[in-house]
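job 3f2a | input accepted
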Amino acid sequence: MKQHHTSSEAVSSSSTISSSTVPSSSEQSQPPIATPSPSPSMGDDPSLAASRDGHGQESVTVDRRTDFSAVCKWTVHNFPKIKARALWSKYFEVGGFDCRLLIYPKGDSQALPGYISVYLQIMDPRGSSSSKWDCFASYRLAIVNHADDSKSIHRDSWHRFSSKKKSHGWCDFTPSTTLFDSKSGYLFNNDSVLITADILILNESVNFTRDNNELQSASSMASMVVAGPVSDVLSGKFTWKVHNFSLFKEMIKTQKIMSPVFPAGECNLRISVYQSSVNGVEYLSMCLESKDTEKAVVSDRSCWCLFRMSVLNQKPGLNHMHRDSYGRFAADNKSGDNTSLGWNDYMKMSDFIGSDSGFLVDDTAVFSTSFHVIKEFSSFSKNGGLIGVRGGSGGTRKSDGHLGKFTWRIENFTRLKDLLKKRKITGLCIKSRRFQIGNRDCRLIVYPRGQSQPPCHLSVFLEVTDSRNTSSDWSCFVSHRLSVVNQRMEDKSVTKESQNRYSKAAKDWGWREFVTLTSLFDQDSGFLVQDTVVFSAEVLILKETSTMLDLTDQDSESSNSGSQIDKIGKRSSFTWRVENFMSFKEIMETRKIFSKFFQAGGCELRIGVYESFDTICIYLESDQSVGSDPDKNFWVRYRMAVVNQKNPAKTVWKESSICTKTWNNSVLQFMKVSDMLEADAGFLVRDTVVFVCEILDCCPWFEFSDLE
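job 3f2a | predicted structure (708 res):
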C-alpha cells in the first residue's frame, strides 16, 4: 500500500476541534417512560368474532369533558365465569374516532400465564379498513378497586393509532388472581368488574411541501411514506398544527406528543414534543425522530439530514423560533446511528405559553421542520471484490476480512455548500453509512466547509469504532488511504495515507486540510463532475491479540539470554501476536506498526516494528502523548524477542534499555526479513509473527539537574 502523494500525518478530528453542533446524547434523551408493546390489530381477527356477542353482560357509560377527551366506564358482569377468550366493549366516540376496550380474561397469546390482557382500540368511522388514517392518543386504562381507590390498577401510555395499528395496551396488565379474589375489592355487585379508560385525542392538522413547492395533503402524504428502501423526497417542509395543546399540557411532563410521519430520503421522520426540567428551569423539548413503519423491510436504511426545527409565531410582526442541527438518522437503533436528534432545552416553557408571546394562540401551537437530505450512493468491496452497493436498494453485507474499500458519492454538493453558507453553519460534518472490516465499524467523515475559519479546505477523516465492546480499553491498528477521487483523471486524485492506532479516546483520524475548496469546486479540476463528489477509503486493519503476564524468576527465560539479573522482584511480559503480518510487509518498508500501550512499573510502553534494508527492526517506546505526565522519567531495562513458534529454543532475544523522557527508544536489529519469512524458519507460521517484550527492571530516573 504505497502512497500516491506525500502527506502529513493524519490527526484525530477530535484532538483540538470542539464537538460539532449535533446535540450530545444527553441532550437527545427522551422522558423516562415505560412504553407498552403494541398488540396485534385484534379487531380484524375472525377467530375472535364469536366473542363479540353477549352485550347483556356489560354496560358502558361515557363522561365527555371536551370533544377530544372522555372517560369511558365499562362494567363487565360475572367476570370470573366468562368463558369467552376475548370481550369487546361497545363503541364510543372521542374526537371523531370510534373507540372501544378489549379484554382477555385469561390473557392473549403474548401474555404470561395467569395474566389479564387489556387494550384500547381506535377506528376511523369515516373510511373503509383500507383507507389511510391515523390519530394520536394519550390514555390511561384502569381496573377499579371499589374498597380502596388507591389500590386501583392503572397504566398510562400514548400511541399513534392508524389503519395498520388499531390496538395498543398491555398483554400483562395484571395477574388474574388479584381480580378473582373476592376480598381484594375489585369484584362488586355479583362479581362485576369496572374497567375505565381516560382518553385524550390530539386535534391536529398537517401539511407537507416538497422542495418543488408541491403541497401534499395528509392523505397523499401517507401514501408517500417510505415502505421500501428509498424515497425521492430529499428536501421539503413539514408543518404540524396542534389545536388543543392545553389538553396535553400535563401529559407532556411525563410523556410526549408525536406528529404523523413524513418521508425524508430512506427514512420516515416525525416531530416529537415534550417538557423537560433543565437546571431547575422548565423547557419545551423538541426533536426529530426516525420511525420505521415496516418491520419486514431492509433494516439498515439511513439518511444524513440537515434540518431546522421551528415553533411558528402566530402574531404578526413577532419572530419565529428556529434551531438548526444535523446528523445521520437510521430506521432503527441497531446500526448505532441516531433515531432521535433535538433539544431538551429548545425554548423556555414560560416563553412558549406566555399570553403575549404569540406561540400559543387560541390553544393552537404550530411546529414545523424544514429538511435537506443528501443524495448519496455508496459501495463496499472486500479484498477487491464487491460486497454491497447502497444508494437505491439492497443492503451492505458485513466483511469477514481485514481489508476493504469503501466508495461514497455525494450528489448536489454545491447546493449543500450554499445551504451551509446561507445558514452560516460552520464546523458541520457529514458521516457516511457504516461499513464493517475486521469486526470494526468504519465510516468516512467529511467537513464540506472544513474545520477552520474562514473556510479554505475540505477536511476528511476515517472513524473506526468497536460495536461489540463499549468499554474504554478497545484498540486497533489501522492503515488507511483516503481519497477525493478525480473523476476525469483518476491518477490526479488527491490521496493521503497514514497508519494510526484507533481507540475510544481517538476514534477518528484524518486531515483537516485535505484539499483546497478552490480546487474542489473548480469546474475544470475533475473533482466536481455533474455536481457530484466521490470519496474513497481503503482500509487495512491489523489482526492482532496481546496479553500481559506477571513473571517470577522461575517463569523467566533470562538464563538463556546470556545475562544474569541479580535483583528481580516482579517482572512483566507483554506478548503481541500479529496475525496478518504479510498484509503489512509493504507498509513496514516505509512506515511502522505498533502495539497498544501496556503498563509496566508506572509507565506506558509499546512495541514498534519496521523494516530497514531487509532487516526487521524492533523498539520499545514510552507514551509521549499530551495526556502523559512529562515530569515522570523512568529507566526501563527490557529484552525483546521474535518467537520461534516451531522451536522455542531458537527464539531470538535481544536486551536493551530506554529512559522514557530523555532517550525514548532504542532500536534493536533482529534478523534479515528474508530469513524470518522462510517457510521452515518457524518465525512466520500461518501469517502470524509473535513479539515478546519482558520488562527486566523499571525505576525512576533522576538527572543531576533534577536533584538540584
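job 3f2a | The radius of gyration is 33 Å.
job 3f2a | closed
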